[in-house]
Fold this protein.
Amino acid sequence: MECNPVRIGGYKDHVHILCLLSKKVTLVKLLESLKSHSSKWIKTKDKKYSHFYWQNGYGSFSVNPKEIETVTQYINNQKEHHKIKSFKDEFLIFLKNYVIEFDERYIWD
């Protein structure tokens, strides 16, 4: 889809994808395709994944090109990072720090 990945990683209950978004693809289309294809793929790997599903929503944030290395290191260090703060706590703090309106009833599945 011409959205070249820079770094992909995550920890237990979430995934981070740092990529260059193509001018030809909407973010919604990219995530729809990623979720659909990866869900079908994981189900072929083992029966224990037969009920795997992605949550309905997602969080998406633009990154200053000067901060790509910082974000890459953040993705690389997920296991250590989340020993200190849960993903949910961190995500809510991020939304509040950047004054992003949200209703917590609709964030988590």
In short: The first strand starts at residue 5 and ends at 11. The first helix runs from residue 27 to 43. Residues 59 and 91 are 9 Å apart (CA to CA). The beta strands are 5-11, 14-19.
